[in-house]
Amino acid sequence: MSSKFPDHFLWGGAMAANQVEGAYQTDGKGLSTSDLQPQGIFGTITPRVDGDSGIKDVAIDFYHHYPQDIALFAEMGFKCLRTSIAWTRIFPQGDEETPNEAGLAFYDRLFDEMARYGIQPLVTLSHYEMPYGLVKQYGGWGNRKTIGFFEHYARTVFERYKHKVQHWLTFNEINMSLHAPFTGVGLAQDSSKSEIYQAIHHQLVASARAVKACHEIVPGGKIGNMLLGGILYPLSCKPEDVLETQRQNRDWLFFGDVQARGGYPAYMRRYFRENGIQVEITAEDQQALRETIDFISFSYYMSGCVTTDEAQNNTARSNILNMVPNPHLASSEWGWQIDPVGLRYLLNVLYDRYQKPLFIVENGLGAKDRVEADGSINDDYRINYLNDHLVQVAEAIDDGVEVMGYTSWGPIDLVSASKAEMSKRYGFIYVDRDDAGNGSLERRRKKSFYWYRDVIQSNGNSLKNKA
Questions:
Q1: Residues in contact with 190: Cβ distance below 8 Å, sequence separation at least 6, in sequence order
Q2: Phi–psi pair at 285, nearest 5 degrees
Q3: 3-state secondary structure of 424
């Protein structure tokens, strides 16, 4: 296909500190909420004791392997790498006045290594983790004081890296707090809706304050939000199904509405009123929220369906977001439905709604890869998945959608977020480690490594439109 991607399109990959770095107590790092979730974001919260271990404690040891890994990303031609800063490397308990210099120095080395190869960092401030000290001492995001702690952290890293990082994100998949409150806002799973939405409100205010700080501190810096793009279709054309689909899409679009439009939409005020949800929103909060993001970023893995038929809804209770399966789509090994056209649809929905540049910062296929006798990994299923999604991105660009870039999840095998597995592999680069933590950590290029290198080198010209 002839390329529809702009000349300066930011091709690359995306990952998170808690899923790749390891070194979980190295150089003064404190305990994060992720360190207490050894089975993943939906698993049991497990206090740490001396001598215990979890797979994320080492992960793929990116903390020590990053020069080798960045070189491999550069070999693929990456223009951009999305990663996150582990908040507890900078402020181990979260409430310190003075940052941990060893943590700051690590990210200096990482960003300098990326700069050697001309790879631009896209940095998430909080990616599915926060200091456990803030949960233990203050009640996490349920406490208004956490806004100030986060702003102090954000201003610290903006000042430190203002000449090294131009693109920032505030909170990863901020709408996920509705489904995994401990992961998102440091609250117990059985917290009330009022408690969860109050914590989310504090996080939205903190996000807006970080946007303001970035605009003040980082010359030419751009900062966006990050949504879990869980687009939903009505299962039928029954009007009640269509209306319920709109309502459920608004559950997550609400976060984008506040961050991109600068205030709470009327439909959310009605939802709070009709469900007895109490949220304290001060005049100062309302003023802070007016500082809006520069671009919208999001993840996209699958779509889902909505119906008002309770019998059909009961069949969907077991999957990650309680999505009703679409009878027209196939699924991955983990039951995630594969819908490339949904990405084009979502891009158009978001651009129509916000009229801001969009950045696809997660999209990929988790699968069980097999190493052949000759050492090769022939992951054609991953190539097909990514090709078909990128073809739809090109179509959205042709529709007139402004797309800044695409960072696939994750460019190298990492510990999965949902269940903390190594066997659910996403990467172009294979890492020799299994779910039990065994393996040499050797890196190996998969077939998709060379495919993605060609896509980047051709600026999308090598993609195959199978329509």
A1: none
A2: -60, -45
A3: coil
21, 129, 291, 362: which is the annotated catalytic residue? Answer: 362
Length of the chain equals 467
The two tokens of residue 211 are 């946007």
Residue type, position 317, single letter: R
- Residue 467's pLDDT is what? 65
Q: Is the pLDDT confidence value at 374 over 90?
A: yes
Q: Using CA atoms, how far apart are residues 29 and 102, in angstroms rounded to an integer?
A: 9
Return the closest-CA partner of residue 449 out of 394, 418, 416, 408.
408
21, 129, 151, 173: the active-site residue: 173
Whose tokens are 């500082």? That residue is: 291
Q: Mind listing the pLDDT tens digit for each residue in 199-212?
A: 999 999 999 999 99
Mean pLDDT of 277-301: 98
Taking Cα atoms as reference points, which of 103, 87, 108 lies closest to residue 32? Answer: 87
The per-residue pLDDT of the chain, averaged, comes to: 95
Segment 90-100, tens digit of pLDDT? 999 999 999 99
Sole residue written with tokens 């305990």: 31
Question: Active site includes 173?
Answer: yes
**Cα–Cα distance between 460 and 77 in angstroms, integer?**
13
Q: Cα separations (Å) of 357 from 93, 98, 300?
A: 35, 36, 16
| pLDDT above 70 for 255 | yes
What is residue 336's DSSP assignment?
P
Contacts of 148 (CB under 8 A, 6+ apart): none
